[in-house]
Amino acid sequence: MIETLLIMWRESLEAALVVGILLTYLARSGERAGMRYVWAGALGAVVAAVAMGLVSNGAAARLGPDAQELLQVGVLLLAVGVLSWMVVWMHRNARQIGGDLRRRADRALATGRLLGLAAIAFAAVFREGVEAVLFLWGVVVQRGDVGAPALLAAGVAGAGLAAGTAWLFFRGFAFLNLHTFFRVTGILLLLVAAGLLTAGVNKLIGLGYLSPIKPQVWNTAWLLRDDSLLGALLGALVGYRSRPSLLEVLAFATYLPAMGWALHRADVAARGAAERSPACSAA
Questions:
Q1: Are 18 and 150 in contact (CB under 8 A)?
Q2: 15 in Cβ contact with 166 (< 8 Å)
Q3: Which residue among 9, 62, 97, 188 is least crowded, i.e. fewest CB within 10 A of its CB?
Q4: Phi, psi values for residue 146, rounded to 5°
Q5: CA–CA separation, 94 and 48 (whole Å)
Q6: Which of 186, 181, 96, 140 is nearest to 4 (CA)?
Q7: pLDDT tens sequence across 203-232
Q8: Axis-axis angle for helices 148-170, 2-28 (nearest 10)
């Protein structure tokens, strides 16, 4: 369940940093009255994201077997798309997040509409919550053997790690380099996305919508079985298959270079934006 822990760590940390930036800014501005609105918006977003996950899961359970299979494929491919977009977006915009939040908080304070602070916190945290729900659904679809207790334990552990990381960051621990953290976890999440993509392709082949081109490219089951502990771990993290089809191999081999190019373009754009606006502050 390391992929669940990683996803929850990353998504929860992004949400915690947004809330922390707003609270720190309000405290330093002497606007402590607005802090409870930020907490209310953040907690409301967590409740709404959990409710959305429960409702969507309940609605999916009412579908027929074929519709459920197609829905699972849709969830996997949607998770790949959103996960890829999120990692590239963070590469490009991480330096501007803090300044943008402070400008939006200033506007809410200037107009006296403190509910605007709750709306800012709700929108930011709910977005991370929806992404987490979507990614975790993709993990469950990819690994049908995942039990609810294991999923919950890994998710709580990831959220706890995020809370601890954010606390250390705002306490001023200089050794915490969040830029490096987001880059490393971004690469790991892209490997998870590649695994989700191959799982989606595998399901489409099984449903008869795609041809495998060649049913089996290699067989490493004698060395590492898919259902072994290490095989399952590598399958979750990097999409390992002991007997992959040619189409699965092509999907994996095409996705990662394409994302490497997208990250390079995001880095170039971020450096250009930083040179044009040297006053932009890091989140």
A1: no
A2: no
A3: 62
A4: -75, 125
A5: 25
A6: 140
A7: 899 888 999 999 999 999 888 888 777 877
A8: 30
